[in-house]
Design brief:
The chain is an alpha+beta fold. It has a domain at 173-206. The chain contains 4 helices and 12 strands, in the order αααββββββββββαββ. The strands form 6 sheets. Strands 1-6 form a two-stranded antiparallel ribbon. It is globular and about 85 Å long. The two termini are 49 Å apart.
Amino acid sequence: MTFFNPKEEVLDIQLTQYGKNLLSKGKLKPVYYAFFDEGVVYDPKHAQSPEKKNVAETRIQDETPSMKTQYCFTGRDEFLFDGLNDKEDRRELAMYERLTALTDDLGTSELGSTKAPYFSMIFLEGALGSSVDHQTGSIRTSAIPGAAAAATDTFYSQQLLKIPQLEVDVEYKISVFERRNPGLPFKRDPSLSVDAYANGLSLAVGPDDLMILAEEGNTTCDFKNFDIEVFEMTGESGSLGEETLRPLYFRPERTMIKNNILLDKPSGVGSATSPTSFDNSYVKYYFDIQTDNEINKSVLCGSLKKFKKRGRNIYSPCGVEFDCPDTYDVIRTDIYASDADDQKC
């Protein structure tokens, strides 16, 4: 571990072990970046040193040493690309670095606000089962291999990640019925149901939908504030004792441009020239995820009507508007917030 020389060094760029593996095959394609301040102590009470308010800026900018980039987060003997199970080892190493290294990147706060950003999640359909304020699935929960420690000591490679975990149960209803007299207590999904068997009976499947209104407060109210990632919990443990999570993929977006040329038909998965086929590595193989304008208007307005009938309303930090005339008064917002356009003229 070395420190920056502030008089000679400014920037240091390193590739992780997984990044080096991708670069060696010509598959490294960086698409975004993020900033971190994990080495900075803003509040001196956490460092147990008295400090006047006016000297905090000098301490942080001029007196806080900066370590050079750490790019290896595992032992050299824990992941060996020796030709045996290299594909599984690379996937496992990639997920470990993704979920445990540099997890707290800097976000965006509202200009002039003295309050920290927060998340607001309202369940329009479905119900919250339980929740915890931290994530424990992606950290090592057993002693570090090879560490000389007493029987009462426990060593961990990572701290608890302060990521809220929400537990929700989604149940599907299944029933056998006669087509002449259905009498189903739920609405069947034609794509999942079977019309008729040889004995004249049919199978009905009714999905349990989950609809969440997710917003971020005390920050800039942009159109795309969230990224959605889906992982499958395999129930297996990796080389480091952490639970192995398998990433699932979304269908790539269709594009009308290829090699800087405008196409007559969209290119990519799901286009007319490339039929869509989803295996168990895709999210759509298990369920559908729809966001914003992808959600059917009648379904969304029906959920808001339920809130209105129960005498409830929703506080929206960004002032979300739904094209539902009967439920316009369900959404509440800050009456003292400015309605001026944030974009420059």
